[in-house]
Structure formats: structure tokens, C-alpha cells
Design brief:
about 190 residues; alpha/beta; Rossmann fold; five-stranded parallel beta sheet; two-stranded antiparallel sheet; 6 helices; about 20% strand; globular
Length: about 190
């Protein structure tokens, strides 16, 4: 059973990867910015253990449903366990986000994708952990394309990324047909 710890749930997670504070901060930011919207349909890409969407739903009173998309089968049992706390409908899809086929459109898309470039960093010995951390299986443009395909008109996508914000902003603007692109930088006060 999940327990609240300092307003963050104690999640079931695989041994090879633990979620970081940026997932919770992303959920908090998205919840604050979407607080007035009702009956939201949520898509979480790179879902891992489902932390972002579950934290979002525990803070937002009007989530209709959540769709989790995660590449690694090793996360499935953790997603199922963690999702028991949800008070909305949900579905879990174990597949590469690029292969996720769904005609449904979403009001909010949440993602904390891997963002380390494997050509600039040394890979670790754990293949599962490397998939969580490094952009080995996709390009950033693939994520933007999937967001564009899955987002309702007027919908919003929130994701974390460590790139230079100006460069990221120009890549998003060039790749998609967006009315507005807002990028936020928050710094964690970590000891």
C-alpha cells in the first residue's frame, strides 16, 4: 500500500531506477497551471512507475482518465501497484512511445524523458537504467511529433529536459505548429 511521505507517495519502483524530485516538481507545476480545467484526460509518456501522473491526480480533483506509456516491461508491476491509489480510469501500455497507437486525444501530456546524450556520457553497466537515462531509442523530434499527434486542440504538454532553454524553444517552434511555447526552468534546492 502507498503511504504519503512529505506530500509525496512512497512508490513501488524497480531496483535499477528511482524517480527523482524533478518528476514531482513537474507534476506540481502542471497541476498548478491546469488547476481551473475540469475532466482532464492525461497521457504520460516515459511513465516509469507513474509518478508524474499519480502525483498530478492526487493534487487535481478533476482527472477523468490516465494513459501510461512505458517502454520497459520491468516497470509494469510497479505501474499496476502504484495505480491502485488512482480515483480515475487508467490504462497501461508497455511499448515504445513512437509505436503507441491510439486515436484518442489528450488534454494534458506529461513526460520526463531520458535526456542524456549517450555520445557525451559514459553508459553504465545496467542496460535498464541506461534506457531510463539516455536518449538511445529516440530523438527529441520524435517526442514532439508524438505530442503533436496526441494532443487535443487547446491541450498542453509538460515535460522536463536539461537542454539550453533557448535552443529547446527554437527546436519546438520549428518542429510543430504551436500557438504558444512556454518553457520553465526551476532549480531544486538540494543539500
Amino acid at each position: 500500500m502507498l503511504k504519503k511521505l512529505e506530500n509525496i507517495l512512497n512508490y513501488s519502483q524497480p531496483h535499477f531506477y528511482k524517480f527523482s524530485r524533478d518528476s514531482v516538481e513537474l507534476a506540481i507545476l502542471a497541476t498548478e497551471l491546469e488547476s481551473e480545467k475540469k475532466s482532464l484526460s492525461i497521457l504520460e509518456l516515459f511513465a516509469g512507475s507513474g509518478v508524474i501522473s499519480i502525483e498530478f491526480q492526487t493534487r487535481h480533483n478533476s482527472v477523468k482518465d490516465i494513459t501510461f506509456v512505458e517502454l520497459q516491461e520491468e516497470f509494469k508491476n510497479h505501474l499496476e501497484e502504484n495505480s491502485k491509489i488512482l480515483t480515475c480510469n487508467y490504462s497501461i501500455h508497455i511499448t515504445n512511445f513512437k509505436d503507441f497507437l491510439n486515436k484518442k486525444k489528450y488534454d494534458v501530456i506529461l513526460a520526463n524523458p531520458p535526456y542524456f546524450d549517450p555520445s557525451r556520457s559514459r553508459l553504465g553497466s545496467d542496460a535498464n537504467r541506461n534506457i531510463c537515462r539516455f536518449t538511445m531509442n529516440f530523438k527529441f523530434q520524435d517526442l514532439i511529433k508524438k505530442v503533436e499527434d496526441c494532443l487535443n486542440p487547446g491541450g498542453v504538454a509538460y515535460f522536463s529536459h536539461r537542454d539550453n532553454l533557448e535552443e529547446l524553444d527554437s527546436r519546438i517552434t520549428r518542429m510543430g505548429d504551436y500557438e504558444e511555447v512556454g518553457l520553465f526552468r526551476f532549480c531544486l534546492d538540494v543539500d
